[in-house]
Every structure is written in structure tokens, then in C-alpha cells.
Amino acid sequence: MKKSRILLLFSLILLCYHTESAAQRSNIKDYVRIEITPDHDDWTYRTNEQASFTIRVIRGNVALKNIPLTYEIGPEKMPPVQTGKSRMEKGFLTVKAGTMKTPGFTTCLCRTEVDGIVYSNYVNIGFSPDKLEPTTTLPKDFTEFWERAKAETALIPIAPLITLLPEQCTPETNVYHVRLQHYKKGTYLYGILCIPKKSGKYPAVLRVPGAGVKKQPAEMALAEKGMITFAIGIHGIPQTLPDDLYPNLSKGVLDNYAFYHLDDKDCYYYRRVYTGCVRALDFLCSLPEYDGENLGVIGGSQGGALAIVTAGLDTRVKALVAFYPALCDLTGYLHGRAGGWPAMFAPQNQNLNNKPEKVATSRYYDVVNFARFIKAPGYYSWGYNDPTCPPTSTYSAYNVITAPKQLFIAHDTGHWRTKEQDIITNNWFCKQLIK
């Protein structure tokens, strides 16, 4: 018995050590960093207003002197229009960044080498970003196209298959794996459903996924606040398969899925994805525990795009949260400025995709054109330094929204978000849906 206790104690100590080590590793940062500070606290300027950056190279919280630095300044995602070098004799460098005559974002990219190691960093600043207008246009038959697509989906029986997942249930929440039929008979959408155990009527939330092929976890944070939640995948793959299957599919048959059938608006990959989100709402609205009124959608990146698309397609949505939405103003690159993920018309992809039929298809799936039809209040959030979903593209969608909207800019974030963004948006979301 004594030996067993000793082994148990040793195991607990080892577990704590590994947990702490993992947490420490996740917080590791470069010892040397390049600090780029705009001369406006909000990183935002008016068009034709002059901007400047102060640059320091920091090691151990001390600015280094007499080290090489190179910098490039130019429109976001475009070739630089200004370059320079410095030896940083004073430990800092002030660079005049010029201005922009039209709304958009300017990037300052810096590089240095310290002790044989190369470091880099960049900062984006905005020029009248609230005035950015999209480059994409609305097809004349846009509404007709999507009403027909929704009607075709509505003819397919949902035929839900709901399976309890006892190992994921909590004392307050039941968790289920769900299969829904949509698009055509024998084609399925899968997700993880959470329903409060306590009898009653509850608001419902659709959690839409970011890009890639991943197993979707249960949306427990909102479920624990007293909501029905449904976290879906978009690729027609069950969410209970072995973990290693998903990355294998991501690198195999589903690699670059966002480009599939881009030359045909009726067959493009996201057609079934967008109508699948509506089908997920159909399912949530059919649940006896749903309160019949308060329905929301939330997601980030590709999920941010799908949140906007879903709200634009379906007026049953009463509130949405979208973080750094993808698929915004896709044709931006064809007009000399940044476009949204998946950058299908970026220079490296233009040989493949800059074709009239593909450009035409993109307009039916561009988030900008769904944002025009949103009626529900929304909370939106991103950073200025996002390399995946550039703020030039996300502002292009946000600015066309006429429904009540709020925007939380976490300026120095990239394609990720802070806990403050989650706390603030979740609190707002709950106030909108929990009456």
C-alpha cells in the first residue's frame, strides 16, 4: 500500500512537471525582438496624412545599438515603395512612412541580424479604413442563385442521426454526435451538439469552423452559459474518427479545397458548405429544447466568413460574432491591393485562377456580397497585423454592413485573438441571445 502511494505521488509530480513545462514552452518568445511603433496610438490615419514609425531592436528589455537593420514600406501585401538601411547608432530609428491617397493599409517590414540569427517583424497601419470600398461586385442574380440553392437543399430530408457521447457529457450538459443529410441524398454534414440537461427552452448557437480539415470539439463555453450549441465540420466527415485521419485528408484529397471547381458557380466547393450552414440552422430550430427565437452563429477565419454568410442567407439568425473573416473581397489582388484568404487571385495564383469564369464565380461566394444582406446585429473583431485575412479585405466587408454592428480592433494581433476579444464578444453574444 505504501509503495502504491509513493508511485501515485511520483506520477502526480511528473504530471505537474510536464504540464508546467508544456505551458512554459507555449509562452516562449524570441529573446531579441524588433519593436515598430506608429506615431498614432490607434495606428490609424486619415488619407493624405503623413505617418512615421519608431523602430527599436530590444534584447532583455534594452534597446540595442550599432546593429544592422533593413526596412521596407509599402501597401499591404504589395511590393514595397520605400526601402532603407540603418546601423541603429542611437538604439532607435525614426522612419517617415509617407501616406496613402486612397483608403487602405501600409506595411512596415523590418529585419535585423544579432549574433548570427535573423529576426523580422512588421506592422500595418490604416489610412481611413472605415472608407474602404470592396472591389468585388454583386451579381444581378445573386439573390435568385442562393434562394434556389436553399430551396433545393430544403427538399432533401434532414434525416438526423443523433448519438450520445457519454465520455464527453458533463453534469450539466449532454453531448451528441450528429449526422444530417443535405445537398443531395446520401450526402452528410456532421457536428457535435451540446444540450443543457436541465429541462427548459434554450437559445441555440451554431459554431462554424476555421479552415482546414479538423475534428471539431464541442462548444462547451457557450453551452455552460445556458445555450444549445452545434459545432459543425464542413467536409462531410464524421467527427468521431481517429485523430490522425484528419491531417491525412488535409494533405491529400482535400488539399486546397477552397480552389475546387472555382470555374463553375453551381459546383464550387463552398456551395454545399454555405447551404450546409443553413441546414444546420434547420436542425437547431427543430430541436424541442430550442426556445424558437434566439439563434446565433459564431466563428473565426473561415468560420468568421461562414458566420457572415449564414446571417446573410438566413434571417432566423438574431446575432453573430465574426473574428477576422476569410473570403472577403477576393478580387482585391486584381486591383492592386490585398484580397482575402484563400488569396485565390494573389500573384502566385493568378496563372491558375485569373480567368473570367473563376472571377465571376468568386462574386457569388465573396463574403462582401453576403454582408450586404445581414439584418442581425453583429460583433466583429480582428487585428491590423493579420497576414492571412488582411484588414484591407475584412474592412471591405464590414463597411457594407448596414445592420447594427460593433468592431473590436486588437491592433497588434495577427491571425489569432486574445482572451479579451473572446470575453468581450462572448458577453455581448450572451446578452443578445439569453433573455
From TrEMBL:
Gene Ontology BP annotations: polysaccharide metabolic process
Record-annotated active site: 301 (nucleophile), 386 (charge relay system), 415 (charge relay system)
Keyword Zinc-finger set for record: no
Keywords noted in UniProt: Signal
InterPro entries: AB_hydrolase_fold, AXE1_dom, CE7
Protein name: Acetyl xylan esterase domain-containing protein
Species in which this protein is naturally found: Bacteroides salyersiae CL02T12C01
Signal peptide extent: 1-22
